[in-house]
Amino acid sequence: MDVTEKIRLVTREPTEEVVTQEELLNLFNTNIHPKHYIGLEISGFMHLGSLILTGFKINDFIKAGVKCTVFLADWHTYLNNKLGGDWEKIRMVSKYYADAFKMFCPGVEIVEGSQLYESRRGYWLDLVKFSKNMSLERTMRSLTIMGRSTEKDKIDLGQLFYPPMQAVDIHTMDLDIVHAGMDQRKIHMLVREIFPKMKWKVPVAVHHHILAGLGEPETAQDSDSDFVASKMSKSKSASGIFVHDIDEEINSKFKKAWCPEGIIDKNPVLEISKYIIFHEFNEVIVERPAKFGGNVTYTSYQDLEGDFAQKKLHPSDLKTTVSKYVTDIIRPIREKIVLTDELSEAIKKTT
């Protein structure tokens, strides 16, 4: 595969930003199989954003010849008080995440934080060295990467280790490409600022779109908190489409989704059309009675959005169509990922 095609795969949607394009081009010109990672906290049930949209992007990297790693951040999960800070539950849910990504992203490597820290004795020394280059004020500002606000949340000392640990993970794994949702951008910019001072390799940063929940969008005071406020969340079951939802649940959630007629800005149903459905299908067929215009076929998201904006496509028809295609995507995934009663209860009690 030539470099131009590799760049196309890495930069296509749901990618929103590459820091920098020039560095990415140079990387592919000098390294056939660069090393990538995406780090994930281990918490609730997998959904459209956490597995499918993220998995689509990982698969783009794999197709481009990149060596991809999903880093299951069990220590970060503990620090962030997810799953009740219960290590037994964290280990149980880690296996669920590992199995899901191995199934959805064939060829991906799974690394747990515990494995990394046990095998790299120099990690903790590097963490101290890195922390000496990071002010307390900057650390506090970085806490949005873990979905925390210094204004709303009570922050404990342990949580302040979260940002520097995330940065040192990147150095320890000797990565060429760091990949995350846009909500993690701050930590990657911190890496790009501090790593050169320490003479550590600076990776290319690739940030993908954060999929919104199905409810009316919430607005926060700043863009970083805005990602957290509106994104599809494991803790908001009514606004998320989960990979274990049965067909009827998916249909019911889309019927209730926020989708005002003619409104395209922050419309979650349109977002799913753009980032999920058109990623997998070359055309989308809206089925409707002849008295409402008959069936219509869209071969691009832009055409579908245009008709919706001009009120040529009704919200109910859009919701029904998106629900059908999402169900077709989720059904085979649901059948392959084992969700035991024990695992389900462990997640429900701590979500």
Keywords:
8 strands; single chain; two-stranded antiparallel sheet; alpha/beta; 6-stranded mixed sheet; globular; 16 helices; 351 residues
Mean pLDDT: 92
| Strand line-up across the major sheet | 1-6-5-2-3-4
Question: Which strand-content bin applies to the residues?
Answer: 5-15%
Low-pLDDT stretches: none
Quaternary status of these chains? single chain
Our count of helices gives 16
| Sheet with the most strands, sense and barrel status | 6 strands, mixed
State the separation between the terminal residues, measured CA to CA.
Answer: 43 Å
General shape: globular
How helix-rich are the residues, as a percent range? 40-55%
Rg calculated over all Cα atoms: 21 Å
Structural category: alpha/beta
Number of strands: 8
Give structural notes.
There is one protein chain. The protein is of the alpha/beta class. It contains 16 helices and 8 strands. It has helices spanning 3-11, 21-30, 48-63, 74-79, 87-104, 113-119, 123-131, 136-141, 162-172, 185-194, 223-230, 247-255, 268-280, 301-309, 315-336, 341-350, and strands spanning 15-19, 36-40, 69-72, 109-112, 177-181, 204-208, 284-286, 296-298. A 6-stranded mixed beta sheet has the order 1-6-5-2-3-4, with helices on both faces. Helix 10 (185-194) links the parallel strand 5 (177-181) and strand 6 (204-208). The longest helix has 22 residues, at 315-336. The protein is globular and about 70 Å long.
